[in-house]
């Protein structure tokens, strides 16, 4: 039976979450304990693991998208299982993967007998899976007296399903540890106390009843967990056998390697020995960055062959206002608009012949870029959705066509605009582009000449670039990247002949342009570019 996985509540104040990265895709097999996704909460980006196994049948929230806690995140079930009823809201109520509960900060039972000192927070054993009844502290990453910041990993806790990181949602000093490594306790039992440095919390700890490993319940463990001094490891009990569940965790001669689940997963995929990596995380913990940037040592003999010499040198160049504006606009576009890219290759034989003939007209000279701008303008009139703009409450389909032409200048990039490009002739477009580009390089462009574009063309063909992709120039919904014309073997009428082709890539905002719409636009554009005489009709 399919399992509905909802957006988990990963912090005590979390109301909604954003999917930063999916680590599984639809059709992938999912094992219990696998990391499904990285989810950005109001406090941190955290790994979210599966408490079920099966096949990932549906993803309800794409990367970069946000949804409320308990809204549909994904569906896991048997391969090929029909989930249409779940997606349409019909059918019987599906089973759910419950979100890990946020840590309980203060228990009412504790406050009834002892008033908490100001700023003191009681951290209890969290419920980290839907079936978890008790947890075992596998590793403490903080010790009594350490400063704790919000988001720091306090401990790794072994549940009935996996060993998971448990992070602090508070800041302060770790005043008391209620469970030592290897000890177990019921959910909501005392785990730790955080508060201002030097605060006496002995009364709070004494008042808070804590469960102990099942085999030692008759030994009245309550007295043991009240002390903050480190205790000797408990005698072997059935609980002590639990580390076998964590056998996959790498170990060294000195014990366990501290590594995040995501870093461990990446290391396994790349075949990297974690014991060779120096962690840069908290307390030397290996994190994703360490694994992705790990380079195997070359060995003493290899190192001895070459000793680099020289002096590091650099120059700090203050960012110009133009560079700052470009950085802000492109960053906003890249991370707010869900880009996707469509690439095509056009036959340029007819276009080359057409340009040669057209430029025989006295006082006339057009470029391939002028032809692309004109072709885009005509195609946009037939596909207004590509000539659109996205707003929070609406999508605007523009009936006019203003094409921005990206121009490189010493400080960066500017985009002057050819207004009503579809109504202009090829020579008029050529003259307009030439004039605007000259003004751009001489810093003479007016704000009015750079405003109002509905589509953008970026051409790096003159620099010998065959293919590339661009970031959308918002509020446009698309930008066309134009490459170089290349002489190459092509197949025509079943024969290999010498031909000339040009590659183009269309970057689209998926909020306004569906894949099929973008593809249809490129088909229309192909008709104009490969048969340019049609642009004169």
Automatic annotation (TrEMBL):
Keywords: Acyltransferase, Lipoyl, Pyruvate, Transferase. Residues 230-241 have a biased composition (Low complexity). Residues 258-295 form the Peripheral subunit-binding (PSBD) domain. Residues 2-77, 120-195 form the Lipoyl-binding domain. Residues 215-229 have a biased composition (Basic and acidic residues). GO terms for molecular function: dihydrolipoyllysine-residue acetyltransferase activity. Pfam families: 2-oxoacid_dh, Biotin_lipoyl, E3_binding. It is an enzyme of class 2 (transferase). It catalyses: N(6)-[(R)-dihydrolipoyl]-L-lysyl-[protein] + acetyl-CoA = N(6)-[(R)-S(8)-acetyldihydrolipoyl]-L-lysyl-[protein] + CoA. Its EC number is 2.3.1.12. Its cofactor is (R)-lipoate. GO terms for cellular component: pyruvate dehydrogenase complex. Binds 2 lipoyl cofactors covalently. GO terms for biological process: pyruvate decarboxylation to acetyl-CoA. Gene3D superfamilies: 2.40.50.100, Chloramphenicol acetyltransferase-like domain, E3-binding domain. Residues 213-248 are annotated as: Disordered. NCBIfam families: PDHac_trf_mito. The pyruvate dehydrogenase complex catalyzes the overall conversion of pyruvate to acetyl-CoA and CO(2). It contains multiple copies of three enzymatic components: pyruvate dehydrogenase (E1), dihydrolipoamide acetyltransferase (E2) and lipoamide dehydrogenase (E3). Forms a 24-polypeptide structural core with octahedral symmetry. Belongs to the 2-oxoacid dehydrogenase family. This is Acetyltransferase component of pyruvate dehydrogenase complex. It comes from Aestuariibaculum suncheonense.
């Amino acid at each position: 039976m399919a399992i509905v996985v909802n957006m988990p509540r990963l912090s005590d104040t979390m109301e909604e979450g954003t999917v930063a990265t999916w680590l599984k895709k639809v059709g992938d097999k999912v094992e219990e304990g696998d990391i499904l996704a990285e989810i950005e909460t109001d406090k941190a980006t955290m790994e979210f693991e599966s408490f079920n196994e099966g096949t990932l049948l549906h993803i309800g929230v794409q990367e970069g998208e946000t949804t409320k806690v308990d809204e549909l995140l994904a569906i896991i079930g048997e391969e090929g299982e029909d989930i249409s009823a779940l997606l349409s809201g019909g059918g019987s109520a599906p089973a759910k993967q419950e979100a890990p509960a946020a840590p309980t900060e203060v228990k009412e039972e504790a406050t009834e007998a002892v008033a908490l000192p100001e700023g003191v927070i009681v951290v209890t054993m969290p419920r980290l899976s839907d079936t978890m009844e008790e947890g075992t502290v596998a590793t403490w990453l903080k010790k009594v007296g350490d400063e704790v910041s919000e988001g720091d990993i306090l401990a790794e806790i072994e549940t009935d399903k996996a060993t998971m990181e448990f992070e602090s949602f508070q800041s302060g000093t770790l005043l008391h540890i209620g469970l030592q490594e290897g000890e177990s306790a019921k959910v909501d039992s005392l785990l730790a106390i955080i508060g201002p440095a030097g605060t006496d919390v002995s009364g709070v700890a004494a008042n808070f009843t804590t469960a102990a490993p099942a085999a030692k319940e008759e030994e009245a463990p309550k007295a043991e967990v009240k002390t903050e001094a480190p205790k000797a490891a408990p005698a072997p009990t059935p609980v002590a056998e639990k580390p076998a569940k964590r056998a996959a965790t790498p170990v060294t001669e000195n014990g366990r390697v501290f590594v995040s689940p995501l870093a461990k997963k990446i290391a396994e995929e790349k075949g990297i020995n974690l014991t060779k990596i120096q962690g840069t995380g908290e307390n030397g913990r290996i994190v994703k960055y360490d694994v992705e940037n790990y380079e195997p040592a070359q060995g003493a003999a290899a190192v001895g062959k070459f000793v680099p010499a020289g002096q590091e040198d650099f120059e700090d160049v203050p960012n110009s206002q133009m560079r700052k504006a470009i950085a802000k606009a492109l960053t906003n576009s890249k991370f707010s608009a869900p880009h996707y890219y469509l690439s095509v290759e056009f036959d340029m034989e007819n276009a080359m012949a057409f340009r040669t003939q057209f430029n025989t007209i006295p006082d006339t000279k057009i470029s391939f870029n002028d032809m692309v701008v004109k072709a885009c303008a005509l195609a946009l009139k037939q596909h207004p959705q590509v000539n659109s703009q996205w707003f929070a409450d609406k999508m605007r389909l523009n009936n006019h066509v203003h094409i921005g032409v990206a121009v490189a200048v010493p400080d960066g990039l500017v985009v002057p605009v050819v207004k009503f490009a579809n109504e202009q002739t090829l020579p008029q477009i050529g003259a307009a582009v030439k004039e605007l580009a000259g003004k751009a390089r001489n810093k003479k462009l007016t704000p009015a000449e750079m405003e109002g574009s509905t589509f953008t063309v970026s051409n790096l063909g003159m620099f010998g670039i065959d293919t590339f992709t661009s970031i959308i120039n918002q509020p446009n919904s698309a930008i066309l990247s134009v490459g170089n014309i290349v002489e190459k073997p092509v197949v025509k009428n079943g024969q290999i002949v010498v031909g000339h082709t040009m590659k183009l890539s269309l970057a689209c905002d998926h909020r306004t342009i569906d894949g099929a719409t973008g593809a249809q636009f490129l088909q229309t554009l192909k008709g104009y570019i490969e048969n340019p005489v049609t642009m004169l009709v």
